[in-house]
Design goal:
By secondary structure, the chain is α+β, with helices and mostly antiparallel strands. It contains 1 helix and 14 strands.
Length: about 260
């Protein structure tokens, strides 16, 4: 009888493990298929700005001018910096965003956000369908709501996101979360996203952003990289991020390893 009970217990355990393993495989297939379906869905709705030498990086640098206590973020491209612009969608939902981006090793807290996980990046963007810099008048026409197409500066916190082809999105939060801390210059969106108003200079093949060191807790020693990317706004599909990266035209380091250091002058 004892041997019979042990054998019966063994058969029962084997069946349980087999069912559990089958369930795990089914869940894994379901998750993989779900992610693949979401990426396919997001890609089907996206028509990125065509590739251009204006979007191909040949150099990325950050210089620190000690006498002025000023950081100058720069990207040089094969073509003309800022010449290529995204075509308007006609609505915020699905609106294209073209960006020259500097991912950094700075902490989100350095730019005025709360303590959160993610990559703090300085992004210089153009998007003709909306304006997200209510404090700044980039085209100097005394209208603060009509210059989204003019390249302008943002701080964003980026996180890994497999729902979009570029595998990155701007970190979001729940509007009801009272613990979220944003810089006072944020435009009021439920994302870790700021509109600091740093001047953007476009001259020939060079883009420059002027950032007072005092605005990032006087941090002048950090690593960074350079990326030119196509992003898109989503205002209706809960399965996709509000702002996701859909195509990277060029990456300065080629592998987004953030290998570059600030050069003091």
């Amino acid at each position: 009888m004892k041997r019979f009970l042990i054998a019966l217990l063994g058969i029962s355990l084997s069946l349980t493990l087999a069912l559990f393993y089958s369930s795990l495989k089914a869940d894994a297939r379901s998750t993989t298929q779900s992610t693949a379906a979401t990426v396919a869905q997001s890609s089907a709705q996206v028509v990125p700005t065509p590739k251009s030498p204006d979007l191909e990086i040949v150099g990325t640098s950050v210089r620190y001018l000690k006498d002025a206590d000023l950081l100058i973020f720069e990207q040089t491209v094969k073509g003309t910096a800022g010449k290529t612009l995204p075509q308007p969608k006609g609505s915020v939902d699905g609106a294209p965003v073209l960006g020259y981006v500097f991912p950094t090793t700075l902490k989100p807290e350095d730019a005025g956000f709360g303590k959160v996980e993610g990559i703090l990046a300085l992004a210089v963007t153009s998007h003709p369908d909306f304006d997200d810099t209510p404090l700044w008048d980039e085209n100097n026409n005394s209208n603060y709501t009509d210059d989204g197409i003019i390249f302008h500066s943002h701080w964003v916190v980026l996180v890994k996101d497999d729902r979009v082809p570029g595998s990155l999105s701007v970190k979001q939060f729940n509007k009801t979360d009272k613990t979220v801390v944003l810089p006072p210059t944020n435009p009021g969106m439920p994302m870790y996203f700021d509109s600091p108003g740093f001047p953007v200079l476009l001259k020939g093949n060079k883009l420059s952003v002027l950032v007072p060191a005092q605005r990032i807790q006087s941090q002048t020693k950090f690593k960074f990289d350079g990326v030119v990317a196509y992003m898109q706004v989503n205002a209706t599909n809960k399965n996709l991020p509000m702002v996701g990266v859909y195509q990277a035209y060029s990456v300065s380091s080629e592998d987004l390893s953030l290998p570059y250091s600030v050069q003091p002058q």
